Amino acid sequence: VGERPVRAQTKPGDMLNALPETPPEHGEGMEAIFADFEQKVMPGITHWQHPRFFAYFASNAAARLLEIATRNADELVEDAKDQADKIIGEARTKAERLTNESRGKADRLETDARIRAQKLDEETNERRQQAVAAIERERYELQREVEHLRAYEREYRARLKNYFQSQLDQLAANENTPAAANQGQNDGSPRRLRSLLGDEDSNASL
User: What is the pTM of this model?
Assistant: First the structure.
């Protein structure tokens, strides 16, 4: 703008006279249009924004520009607020989702741990009961074996005692004969049998 003249270089009516009487029948290129604009329109324009233009004309352009700038600023602020609210909302939603997922995982882990602990306790109790039952069975079998051995010992002692007693009775019956008496004096077998049976001590006490 600073390279152009400040005021129009034409007289009133020159621009109208420069225009053709009829419009062109065929379209023209942009270069021709811009050339006509430079040659016919621009010479008749007064440039208010020229650096050497010092006249004053009342205009609401500044207020309009301020209004546009204010509206644009308000729109930018609203857009920024909307974006900030959107970002904050997404962040809160994501944080709540992560929190819920973490709580769910923690609850599942706790539940799994409780189930495993309970299962281990049950298995331990079952093994302990099985071990106690096995020990009880083994103790019962040992007691039965001991009772069986004791019964066998008592029966064996009774049979042995009866056998020795029968032998002593037979010897006692044979002691009445002289030959048996002489043999009994020289032989201590009846006395040894009585000592084994415990009869000698009882006879001595009598």
Answer: 0.32
**Residue 45, burial from CB neighbour count under 10 angstroms (0-12, 13-18, 19+):** middle
Cα 150 → chain centroid: 63
| Cβ count within 10 A of residue 173 | 10
pLDDT at residue number 33: 84
pLDDT tens-digit series, residues 44-84: 777 766 776 666 555 556 667 777 888 888 888 999 999 99
Dig out the tokens for 101 from the structure: 């997922």
Between 61-174 and 189-197, two packed helices, what is the crossing angle to 10 degrees? Answer: 150
Quickly list DSSP for 112-142. Answer: HHHHHHHHHHHHHHHHHHHHHHHHHHHHHHH
Give the helix/strand (H/E) hosting 170: helix 61-174
pLDDT digits (tens, 9 = 90+) for 111-166: 999 999 999 999 998 898 999 999 999 989 999 899 999 898 888 888 888 888 88
How far, in Å, CA of 4 to CA of 52, rounded? 10
Per-position DSSP letters for 51-113, written without gaps between them: TT--------HHHHHHHHHHHHHHHHHHHHHHHHHHHHHHHHHHHHHHHHHHHHHHHHHHHHH
- The CA distance from 100 to 108, in Å, is 12
